[in-house]
Specification:
Elements (H helix, E strand, L loop, with lengths): L1 H16 L5 H6 E7 L10 H14 L4 E10 L2 E11 L13 E13 L2 E9 L1 H7 L9 H6 L20
């Protein structure tokens, strides 16, 4: 069932978020669905996920999400995704900025009988708000971005005195 469960999870992203087809929610999400990551003000049910999709598509009309990886184990599907779009509308009280943002996230769906019954979703909200100019970047973020460095305690490969990782 894992390939079928992954296909169910993919449909919400590809048809709901990417195309704005809210009917997909009624097709693949169970009546007793619980979204454990529902934002404040939205119900954690099917109507809440429809509202969430609608709000993001209104705020980012060119929203496009790709699935980077999917892993299924038992009745759970884990999806690593990347979404990008241009902010052209308000989102949760944040004003439109006209700026482009790219975010990454992890989604876990529990699928029973070809229907999603539970969801947990986590994505880099702070990074999105920084890209949109709604929150300033961290104080040394600009200096760090301009000068790449090796992880602490690991010299870069190819530098004198460096050694191959074990």
């Amino acid at each position: 069932m894992s390939e079928q469960d992954k296909a169910v999870s993919r449909r919400v992203i590809e048809e709901g978020f990417n195309k704005g087809n809210l009917q997909i929610v009624d097709e693949v999400i169970a009546v007793n669905y619980v979204n454990h990551s529902a934002p404040p003000g939205l119900p954690p049910d099917r109507e809440g996920i429809k509202a969430f999709i609608g709000m993001y598509r209104a705020a980012f009309p060119d929203l496009h999400t790709i699935i980077n990886d999917q892993i299924a184990e038992g009745d759970q599907v884990v999806t690593r995704w990347t979404a990008e779009g241009t902010n052209m509308g308000n989102l949760f009280g944040m004003p439109s900025t006209g700026k482009h943002a790219t975010i990454n996230g992890i989604l876990i769906d529990r699928v029973v009988g070809a229907k999603i019954v539970e969801t947990w979703n986590s994505f880099v909200q702070l990074g999105m708000m920084q890209q949109l100019g709604l929150i300033p970047p961290a104080p040394n973020a600009q200096a760090s971005a301009a000068k790449p460095s090796a992880p602490a305690g690991r010299p870069e490969m190819g530098q004198p005195g460096s050694r191959a990782p074990m």
